[in-house]
User: Which sequence fits this backbone?
């Protein structure tokens, strides 16, 4: 799975050679929106200004478990407040890569929440409801996302029709080379929106086939029948789009569970086999799976797999998967094969977790060429 420096350099050259095409690419992404507060858990506080952090998720779990039947006080320290939601993070990353991006979501209504102001300067942004809110408690080995989702019920077809307009939505779909529908899990009416789009808008699409990227987001809390219905709708989009379904490691297992597929131990080989079984049941054009340390893509041309530039000391992890998605989609839009698109994806994510910033194409080429970084 290790990727040679020569292969990384080749990918960097391809990205740079195609960089001039990026500003002509158009994307339409939706439909969620969150305000994310990134938090650390205090282990010991030495004084008003200095504390040590709980680095491992299990340590927080143990502290809570030890207090069962009694009570305890846990201090959270805010690291930053930022735009959140799979859609805004992915769309913002696409805009940073240089694409023209239009976004529809729940980012504040009737006025945008201030956290989305910079995003609105990079992209054409429309909002029909208030955002959700997430407390993202981060550790070195993962994160716990504590969400408040009441406003997400307002993202429905009726509100799209009345507050945005079906004609405007049709125009954005028609103009885009890439359409991204993400965070199905947290948007309770997303399946209904997809059904309406397939019935009312997709049959009218003309011109070349577009790319469609779908990220369900962690579907553990949704009923298996609902997950299967959503997957059926995703496959149905293949009549009009080249569809990519993106899953992280946990999401792959949750989808397999909903499909009654046995889930093996999480080795790279076992995960690849599990992805093949899921792809046989969910016949999208491309299935992408991105665990933390590697990523793989399955399509009719076979399976591609690559390791990524993992760091043990990330500045941020919330949004890493969305950055991977943006980099992979960029690669596909530029005509790269699955392996190079995966390299673009893991490098976009790797740059983001190291810097807490979204990269440009030259940043991707720089990280790919950096011989001090291990893939």
Assistant:
């Amino acid at each position: 799975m290790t990727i040679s420096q020569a292969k990384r350099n080749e990918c960097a050259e391809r990205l740079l050679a195609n960089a001039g095409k990026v500003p002509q690419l158009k994307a339409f992404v939706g439909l969620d929106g969150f305000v994310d507060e990134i938090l650390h858990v205090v282990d010991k506080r030495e004084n008003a200004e200095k504390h040590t952090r709980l680095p491992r998720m299990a340590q927080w779990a143990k502290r809570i478990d030890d207090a069962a039947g009694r009570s305890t006080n846990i201090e959270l320290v805010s690291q930053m407040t930022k735009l959140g939601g799979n859609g805004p993070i992915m769309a913002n990353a696409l805009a940073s890569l240089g694409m023209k991006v239009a976004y529809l979501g729940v980012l504040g209504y009737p006025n945008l929440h201030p956290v989305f102001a910079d995003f609105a300067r990079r992209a054409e942004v429309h909002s029909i409801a208030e955002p959700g809110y997430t407390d993202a408690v981060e550790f070195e080995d993962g994160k716990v996302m504590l969400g408040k989702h009441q406003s997400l019920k307002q993202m429905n077809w009726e509100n799209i029709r009345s507050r945005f307009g079906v004609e405007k939505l049709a125009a954005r779909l028609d103009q885009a080379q890439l359409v991204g529908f993400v965070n199905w899990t947290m948007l309770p009416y997303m399946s209904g929106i997809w059904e309406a789009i397939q019935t009312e808008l997709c049959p009218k699409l003309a011109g070349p086939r577009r790319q469609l990227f779908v990220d369900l987001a962690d579907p553990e809390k949704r009923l298996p029948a609902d997950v299967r219905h959503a997957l059926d709708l995703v496959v149905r989009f293949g009549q009009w789009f080249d569809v990519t379904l993106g899953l992280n490691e946990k999401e792959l297992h949750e989808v397999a569970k909903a499909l009654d597929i046995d889930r093996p131990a999480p080795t790279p080989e076992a995960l690849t086999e599990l992805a093949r079984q899921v792809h046989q049941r969910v016949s999208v054009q491309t299935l992408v799976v991105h665990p933390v340390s590697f990523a793989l893509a399955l399509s009719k041309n076979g399976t591609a797999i690559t390791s990524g530039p993992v760091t043990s000391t990330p500045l941020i992890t919330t949004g890493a998967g969305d950055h991977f998605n943006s980099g992979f989609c960029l690669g596909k839009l530029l005509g790269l094969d699955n392996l190079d698109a995966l390299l673009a994806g893991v490098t976009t994510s790797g740059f983001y977790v190291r810097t807490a910033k979204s990269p440009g194409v030259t940043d991707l080429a720089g990280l790919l060429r950096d011989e001090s970084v291990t893939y």
